[in-house]
Amino acid sequence: MSARLQKDAVLRQSFAVPVEFPVIFTRGLFDPANPVLLKAVRRMGERRRHRVAVFVDAGVWRAHPALARRIRAYFAAHTGALELVAPPQRVPGGEKAKRDAALVGRLLARFQAWRLCRHSFVVAVGGGAVLDAVGLAAALFHRGLRLIRVPTTVLAQNDVGVGVKNAVNWRGVKNLVGTFSPPFAVLNDSDFLAALPDRDWIGGIAEAFKVALIRDARFFRWLSARASQLRARDRAAMEELIRRCAALHLDHIRGGGDPFETGRARPLDFGHWVAHKLEAMTGFRIGHGQAVAIGLMLDSGYARRKGWLKAAELRAIRSGLLRSGFTLWHPALAARDGRGRLKILRGLEDFREHLGGELWVTYPLGIGRRHEVGEVESACVEECVRALSPGRRASARKAATPRPQQIRSRM
For 141-177, what is each residue's pLDDT tens digit? Predict the structure, then answer.
């Protein structure tokens, strides 16, 4: 009897680990007189000379040709507290960073060559793709180096850079390989925004609309009122957008009850089942922000057809996105497979896999609120796609529509 009890014994383990990291907004981060980076590295109060490796997005490197020199000068000015283990390293930017399966391995090899330890720092300077790739490598090496993110795009500063995830694409699937690994600090330097091309300037506005639509009606009204200013590159307006959007993301991660996404819902992925599939279908030629804007519009149209949004609310969403500079259509939306089914609908199956086999999609329930549903009607998605198609409504009505079906949650 005692042997059986010993064999079937269960020892239960439960503990909580506090997570804390600052998100700091500044200008001139690498000015030797700016103490933000130095204080961020030393915030644990450790008495040592901290070893730091710096990686810079290739696009940022080109746009700021003096950046590497400024970084070296910063470390030279604080040599008593900081050691730059190697000259700043240039890494591929944009989707090239996300799609290069060998990049993470090359980064790990450099960490090993420099003999970085768990108390060493990795500073990633760049857009969201670089933050993801460098962040993943940092999370894997010695089970986690101290990552400091320096986001340089609107999308990275108000969304990707302040989260607790990092991932890269694998075999054409967006963010298939990754980890949950909170950064040591996030340092948002608004000076980097001035050199952004227009596509990257407006890209992060879509993520601001996303979080406003499901969490903050007041912020949605603010965005709508300033859409033209934002598109015209009003710096003060953009800095406020970034701060407010980042705060909403941090609030959701902290107070949403599921920071590491063990549950079924992904509110901050509103509109993203469309966006991720559209990116993959276009070979990632469409920007993430543009794809998200289309996803928001399509899912908002779905919400209107189901009675979750009023007609005036849908018009306000469309107007705000258009005045921000987004195009709310892409021909890939209308692409069909051999059975005549919209290829974009495959995004729901991909999303289901991402969620662990059970489909839950976030939709607005009025502006500023949300709910999750476990089924999406393909016929209704068809209607939403036709509604977005410019000048094609008449021909779309004549086209044969596949038999209505529902894509349901699988238990």
Answer: 999 999 999 999 999 999 889 988 898 888 877 777 8
Q: Are residues 155 and 268 in the same domain?
A: no
Last residue of a domain, one of 135, 166, 196: 196
Half-sphere exposure for 311 (CA within 13 Å, toward CB): 0
Sign of CA dihedral 88, 89, 93, 95: negative
Answer whether residue 15 is part of any domain: no
Check whether residue 210 and residue 141 sit in a common domain.
no
Q: Which domain holds residue 128?
A: 23-196
Residue 211 maps to a domain: yes
CA distances from 234 to 150, 151, 194, 229, 288 (A): 22, 19, 10, 5, 22
Q: Is 149 a domain residue? A: yes
Going from the C-alpha of 159 to that of each of 183, 242, 250, 356, the distances in angstroms are: 13, 8, 9, 23
Cα torsion through 301, 305, 307, 309, rounded to 10 = 20
- Asked whether residue 1 is domain-assigned, the answer is no
Quick: pLDDT tens for 255-293.
776 677 666 567 788 999 999 999 999 998 999 999 999
Give whole-number Cα distances, 81 to 42, 56, 64, 249, 345, in Å.
8, 21, 26, 32, 53
Using N-to-C axis directions, what is the helix angle for 346-354 and 272-281, rounded to 10°? 120
Task: State whether 346 and 237 are in the same domain.
Answer: yes
Global pTM reads: 0.86
Domain count, the chain: 2
Q: What is the pLDDT of residue 203?
A: 93
- pLDDT, tens digit, for every residue of 322-381? 999 999 999 999 999 999 999 999 999 888 876 667 788 999 999 999 999 989 999 999
